[in-house]
Write a sequence for this structure.
DNA sequence: ATGAGTACTGTACCGCGGGTGCGGTTCTCA
DNA sequence: TGAGAACCGCACCCGCGGTACAGTACTCAT
């Protein structure tokens, strides 16, 4: 593990993003004021605009950072799973278990998905932010689609299986599970949804 | 069918709610200004406050109306399905097909789920709105849980099946599917997710 | 040590948005 | 025709996003 040493400016920028992300996931983007962000970050408004051109720039940086972190997280989980099994199906099932366990280990539950949050406020953002958001889901789709294709080679599924939809279902169940957990204030709901997806994948690739 | 005749006041109120709902699903609640609502509705600010105490009252009315309409819609679909089959599993599968078809028939895709939208901005709302939002999901859970219990009586599932999670999965897949469809601007994604859920239900209750 | 960035602070200002208050007006319908 | 329903008009408040720009303290390579 290489630990990047952040410069003072980078550290402040990260702090702003941390604070903004919590607020945005709780109150929405328009509902989050710059004043509350700078107050909590202990800086002035001028300080904020030194780091970000405007609020939209903040939104973009938040999203980009979220997608980057997710990329690192999932690459890691897939790598772990691949080390535990050579078989594509078993590896994928292990991955889903690891994913569910990780979500279980969040005592306050998953804080929320930036992508989902932005989808319900997309008219607030510029075109490039919306495109970046869509790209985030496409990355998920491709990542899962790759795995499922490799599984389907070894475990021929029924002819009518919609593999693209099955790949997208990982995103859908994750985002839907987060909504369930947040709304009902029950952190266990998200990991249980992931395990439902896992059970489906297991069933759908079992010989009939 | 009884057609309620709306008084002028009720008609205006409904128009405000229609306009507000579209705007909120596109820009979030805080991102939607009263000025744009009243401009589109062709009324003044005073007119707005005649119908709603404040913005939170508007939020509550929107959510209540959304939940009521959903209730009517799903009761209708379940009734249709029950008329087509006595068997609880077949009826449920028919219901899911009807649901998916209905979502397919929306040319511009599903406009969005108020419940999901509110979850990502819940700190903007009063306690009673948040409670109402949670109640909406609980109603879904119970509705599906009832159906699944009746199915499980006739088609004994594997012992490890998490029926509560399977019931919640309907909400999760619907909300997740809506997010997929909205984000990637592809209306077909939502109905396909519903059909994935349907396939899972079918598999999980099939004798092994 | 010093000067050139880097990372801010301080102040002043603008227009929009949510919200309040309250008096006046028009429309509807028994 | 008169009483309530359904608004309009206007004045005012504060918070928020954003702009502009001058000044300052800290950091670090030469």
């Amino acid at each position: 593990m290489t630990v990047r040493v952040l410069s003072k400016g980078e550290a402040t920028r990260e702090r702003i993003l941390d604070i903004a992300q919590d607020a945005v996931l709780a109150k929405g983007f328009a509902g989050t004021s710059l004043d509350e962000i700078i107050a909590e970050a202990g800086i002035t408004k001028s300080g904020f605009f030194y780091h970000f051109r405007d609020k939209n720039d903040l939104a973009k940086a938040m999203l980009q950072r979220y997608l980057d972190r997710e990329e690192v997280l999932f690459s890691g989980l897939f790598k772990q799973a691949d080390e535990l099994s050579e078989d594509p199906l078993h590896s994928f099932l292990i991955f889903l278990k690891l994913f569910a366990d990780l979500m279980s280990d969040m005592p306050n539950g998953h804080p929320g998905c930036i992508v989902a949050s932005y989808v319900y406020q997309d008219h607030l953002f510029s075109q490039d932010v919306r495109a970046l958001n869509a790209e985030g889901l496409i990355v998920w789709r491709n990542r899962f689609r790759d795995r499922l294709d490799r599984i389907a080679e070894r475990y021929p599924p029924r002819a009518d299986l919609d593999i693209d939809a099955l790949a997208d279902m990982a995103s859908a169940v994750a985002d839907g599970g987060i909504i369930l957990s947040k709304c009902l204030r029950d952190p266990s709901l998200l990991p249980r949804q992931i395990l439902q997806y896992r059970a489906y994948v297991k069933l759908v690739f079992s010989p009939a």
In short: Chain B touches chain A through 50 residues (CB under 8 Å). Residues 7-8, 33-35, 45-46, 49, 54-55 of chain B lie near DNA strand C (CB under 10 Å from a C1'). The first helix of chain B runs from residue 8 to 27. The CA atoms of residues 165 and 172 of chain B lie 10 Å apart.
